[in-house]
Amino acid sequence: MTKAAPRPDHTMLDDAQGLSLGVFLCGFGIHLLTSAGLVTGQTAGVAVIVAYLTGYSFGVVFFCINLPFYLLAWKRLGSAFTIKSIVSVTLLSVVTEAIPLGVTIDTLHPIFAAVSFGALVGIGLLAMFRHNGSLGGFGVIALLVQDKTGFRAGWVQLIFDAGVFGVALLLFPLPVVLYSLVGAVVLNLIIAINHRRDRYVAT
Q: pTM for the complete prediction?
């Protein structure tokens, strides 16, 4: 029986393009979401809610919320993963501030915004996971749970999202939350179905 050829390591250039693509897709997805006045789950959802309530920009809030998770990532997932995640979160904070300067949206149906957000961010996160990075926050916990138990990261994130949307119901109209939930389901289904360590192992 022939042994499978070993997977080649990612080069620094591979990681740079993969993480950059992931950040851009996530940033554009978040721009569509917030332009439609919707919210999302995970750490980004908490940041969107806080930004709406306080008036601070999403980029600043998202960066600050992620700070406590870096220590956990460093201890459990290693320095390379943590450094890539810090760089990615910082870049996303910059990208979400820059995209509105280049893209103005006059008309955007909420369901289109929700589905587009879920697809763009789902694919963006897959690109980042496959290059051993993330957007920090509760995504770190979801990856840890998947690696330790085999329970898919997408399902872990969907469970956490249920709590975020429970809070959102107290703050936003029901149609806003329902449209937003569509985006979260699309995103997490993409992660749950496509992100499997036995299929693709990033190094």
A: 0.79
Query: Any residues with CB less than 8 A from the CB of 122 and at least 6 apart, and which?
Result: 186, 187, 188, 189, 190, 191, 194
- Rounded distance between C-alpha atoms, residue 107 and residue 51, angstroms: 22
Q: Return all residues near 117 (Cβ < 8 A) that are at least 6 apart.
A: 29, 30, 32, 33, 38, 40, 183, 186, 187
Separation of alpha carbons 103 and 38, rounded Å: 18
The tokens of 100 are what? Answer: 């509105």
- Give helix 79-102 / helix 12-35 axis angle, nearest 10°: 50
DSSP 8-state secondary structure symbol assigned to residue 144 = H
CB-facing half-sphere around the CA of 135: CA atoms within 13 A: 29
Q: What confidence tens digit (pLDDT) does each residue in 48-75 have?
A: 788 888 888 877 888 888 888 888 788 7
pLDDT tens digits, one per residue of 165-200: 888 888 889 999 999 989 988 988 898 888 665 555
CA distances from 22 to 6, 11, 179 (A): 25, 16, 23
